[in-house]
Amino acid sequence: MATLAQPRTPVTPPTYAEITRDVAATLGNPSRxxxxxxGFVLTVLAIGVGALLYQIRFxxxxxxxxxxxxxxxYITNFVFWVGIAHSGTxxxxxxxxxxxxWRTAVYRTAEAMTVFAVLTAGLFPLIHIGRIWYAYWLxxxxxxxxxxxxxxxxxxxxxxxxSTYLTVSTLxxxxxxxxxxxxxxxxxxxxxxxxxxITALGWRGTDQQWRHYLKAYLYxxxxxxxxxxxxxxxxxxxxxxxxxxxxxxxxxxxxxVAGAIYSGVALVVTLLVPLRKVFRMERYITxxxxxxxxxxxxxxxxxxxxxxxxxxxLAWYSGNQFERAAxxxxxxxxxxxxxxxxxxxxxxLPLFLIFRKVRRSIPAMFVLSLFVNLGMWFERFVIxxxxxxxEYEPYAFGHYTPSWVEWxxxxxxxxxxxxxxxxxxxxxxxxxxxxxxxxxxxPRKGRAHT
Amino acid sequence: MDRRRFLExxxxxxxxxxxxxxxxxxxxxxxxxxxxxxxxxxxxxATYYATTCRECPAGCGLHVRVxxxxxxxxxxxxxxxxxxxxxxxxxxxSLQGLYNPDRxxxxxxxxxxxxxxxxxxxxxxxxxxxxxxxxxGDQIWFVTGHETGTFDRLVDEWLNGLRSNRRVVHEPFAYExxxxxxxxxxxxxxxxxxxxxxxxxxxxxxxxxxxxxVSPVEHARGFSAGHGFAEGRMGRYVHIEPRMSMTAMSADxxxxxxxxxxxxxxxxxxxxxxxxxxxAVPPDALRLRALLAAHTPQGAAARxxxxxxxxxxxxxxxxxxxxLAVAGGIGAQHPQAHVTAAAVNVLNYVAxxxxxxxxxxxxxxxxxxxxxxxxxDLTRAMREGRVGVLLVHGANPAYASPAGLGFTDxxxxxxxxxSFARFLDETAMAAHLILPDHDPLEQWNDAEPRANVxxxxxxxxxxxxxxxxxxxxLLAMARRMGGRVGARFTAGSYKEYLQQSWQALQRRLRNxxxxxxxWAEALQRGGIVTESPPRPVRLGxxxxxxxGEATIWAAxxxxxxxxxxxxxxxxxxxxxxxxxxxxxPDPVTKVTWSTWVEIHPATARRLGIAEGDFVEVTSAAGTVxxxxxxxxGLREDVVAMPTGQGHTAFGxxxxxxxxxxxxxxxxxxxxxxxxxxxxxxxxxxxxxHERLAKxxxxxxxxxxxxxxxxxxxxxxxxxxxEAAHEEHAAHAAPVPERIEHILDEWQExxxxxxxxGNYAGEHPRWAMAIxxxxxxxxxxxxxxxxxxxxxxxxxxxxxxxxxxMSWLRIERYFEGGEHGEPLETRVIPMLCQHCGxxxxxxxxxxxxxxxxPDGLNAQxxxxxxxxxxxxxxxxxxxxxxxxxxxxxxxDPTFAWPEPLHWLLNPDVTVRAKGVMEKCTFCVQRIxxxxxxxxxxxxxxxxxxxxxxxxxxCPSDAIVFGDLNDPTSRVHDLAADRRGYRVLEELNTRPxxxxxxxxxxxxxx
Lengths: 450, 1004
Prior knowledge:
heterodimer, A: mainly alpha, 16 helices, disordered C terminus, B: alpha/beta, seven-stranded mixed beta sheet, six-stranded mixed β-barrel
């Protein structure tokens, strides 16, 4: 990790005042482009909501489900979005504990992404169940019918994992924001001033506040760190505890965690590139940051590639005919295209990151991150759909194709995510003012004005 | 939304649900409780009425379960010698005829603009009387279906009273070829009874005796008795036909000769038996010796494509034991089919089977009358304008006749057509007046399905619609017209007429009871069974002539021979308006709701045809287009299509589905008087493609041992499986004791789950055994399950998505059939295995999948939130999800349009949208029997609980009972050496034991 923390490009460090000014500038009056983008995203969201209402009215049959494939795009989306969430916490909490200074410029974006991704992910278990109006039955609440939930079921683990993760990551984001909100409160006007005044929770920047603040932040980071590993492990158990060939594997927890970080970092890159451009943050988010993110991508990508190889090896080595048939079907069955998309995007494309030139090229990183996102979505699709389509009973094999409703809801989920993100980016600092200030050299006397 | 609006919406949705749940009709406006309840009518307690099934001419006895005045389930009548309590899928679906939403709801007349308009019964009868009075005697023609009892006589007498003898019986499957052969060879035009149970060797020449032929349920029972493995013995069955039918799937050997050459094979067998004196050849058969001498095995081999050794072997096997050869199936009805049937008659006679396994009844001409020839005469008469009034009852000749006959066009030249149809079928659509008959379940009637059996039909409930029994109309008409015809009938109603007829019957039987007692007893038992010795038959004078004209039917110069075989599900098309039957996968192809063209995979490869490609099939008579189904159970020069689809009318479920194969058949009556179901055709790929609506994923079991089979030799010859197990253990690598201990503990821990709920064996452990050596794949159990458990039908679009809801399905797998290996077919009924250690249970987050103390794997519908994890984790894939709302009338997927929902079983929940459902082992029946036992203060006995599938199984393949009861049948069968549990290696501990199929490969 130490190597990751070394900035390579010496740039003229900005002054404290410049930092506050530059970051606060991103919160200025939105341009026409912003409104067009927001309008577009809201339209797509409305389409997704419409599709969901249509599904609730007529039943889940409007999705493309074809038994035996009882889980499809919705659960794929769920795992995809939960996975996305992980890199945020990794960057903000784990790298914080490791004192990786480079994280300061990018962690806020990653953290916001985490919260919004969990918000998105949490919708899908609801969207996918048959009777959404009874979703609350999944919670252990006291009732006169003496009904209780089945703590053996991994779906119940999920409920706890996801809700815990949402709570902790939201807290972490809010706590991290406090000093920055206070900073922009001081320059804001109008209704936003009122908003910031409330959300800054009376922050005045006193020593005592700083002392408490840093403690709280440290403890929250420590609390969030195990969640990075545990939440996606729990999600992986949705599959691993079943007896479905292709799901039932002990490798799933580390495999899923690595995959989650992989996809999350890729989405961070995808988000940072335009953000950096639009908000003119080139001074703060530099090639070094992309280089470091690329190394993280490369590491997790290699783990994911290794996991693929292990899966195939074990399917062969186990001698279990059902496993063998399941993996043969993945690679050469009806869904070969999905499997090869996943393998090429996730295991082969990251090999390009070996070259420093690629790592530091922002367009290359952007394109690569899109491919990794695509590949990781297909990884979940392959694991879920392809395994289910080809289980034990040959008579009951089936072929699933998603319907327009599922695509609409998938697009709607991206719109939901970006709605939050756009609103956040225009109202809260996407680069941490206080933490960036921590890593620049101490200002010399006479030049310091804050 | 304000509070008012909210309440409004709530009221409307709540009211809608209540209306559906209450099954109310428009007529009921006031709810008045019974002050003086009708006798025998206890709310919640079912009444059973005995009657007779009229879905096909077999005439099986029925017990109809009636709840609160509504028929909710039909089952076989155990006292009927025809079906002994069992039923086929068509019989099970008869309820959907009764409650069909497309029934004609009252009399209708055609208006000037060609539409039908409801009229009153008085007016309808007046119109008919007027027309009849205007027509002269022989201008009045009456077409009926196959009728054997009192109604048959009534129609004849009535016509006679009108000075007409123009009676036409139209039964599409009338076995003209078989009757002609019986007349030729034995001087008897009746159909005999076939004793499959007594035959240790069965040879079928293209006869689908387990599907549609004559009396399939009776045959299935006999066949499974003779061919099912029991105590080290079983019969052997060889099927000879160019196509492997459902019946042939049960065969130990399937031989596909050149189409139409079966007669030569039969004669060659007779030749060998005669030559070798293999059996006690009756002396009078010796006069055929010279004739048979010409049919050498070598000659037959050259023309049939069957090896000489095979022919010799078949002859040896056939001569060895009590054997039975059958011919005359509709699917083997080529232009010379009567020669095949005659040759098989001779073969049976030569082998001494006639009088032993083939028995003719006391009367020479009972059973089928009429035939296609008569229909052709009628059509000619219609075209020539010689038909003044045409009355049609119980037949649909406009659909079930070759298009070349032009029946519908000819009907246009008839002065006045009256249809007594229950549905607006193709013939009724061309009629002027429709006087809807009662459904058979609402009627008084009787039938003589076969010798010695006279079955009664009684109404099991009030008529659903404003219909009238045709017998009553005829009598009313006679009374109204007076004169000669009026004087003939003294009965005031058809019921009275029927009773008069039964009084005569009682006199004939010299029964001395008071008539009331005789009648009541017959009603209660569903009819009477008489005893009479079989009629001995001798080789008739025409026998030599009948086989002398043995000319092989050679298809004209076309590349393919089409076999139009009778659909075992839809029959001649009369089942097409029953959604249960439409959705029942064809036992062979597993296709639903459509027509298909069966093509051999090698042929398809050669022609570049893939499954689902629309293929144009052209014969001299016409062209039809249907999607291809690649079927290895065919000769490469044969294509096959089922009958039954392609209706242009006949209600919402039948209309516009698939293609009518009759359009390909020649309208010319064959020498035997029937329609040839073979045609020479060409096929062409149209380039259009559609996914077939079939329920099957893959047709090979990939070595997974799901449907297992063994051979008789292996079972009789080898040591017991226990010994084999020990031997296997000896070869296995030694396991250290410590490890073994750990493994044992682990296994114990695994199995501890399985005992959960079953507190130290206090409760029963419900279990099932299914004998695959008896299961024929007929799928009657599937429809019975739909009927018992309120399973919705979903339609072809959803079947294409694999969303059929059938809790019980028959999986059909192919083995071999490639690289010169013989094709073998295996079937296995797959339903919830009620695992002791069920994978579906722990994954449910809300305990909707739950284990009952008596070992049932229960599904709590109202607790289910629909995560569907249980289905993902079920290795058997027997859980079904409610993707849509099948019970909401306003939804497009509504499965029970009024009054179809009257057949819902009040003991079973109708499941809501978004919940999982599956087989319950008929828990409502288990609980019902338990309650009864408790009321009677007695313990449950083995056999008290009968599941719906078990109840209907014609071949008695299913046994249900308590595994914890050491005296139960299922307890024994669970330990049977043929027993295995599917996917047992997953440690699911299923409650269903399958007994391996046994193939008798013993070759004499």
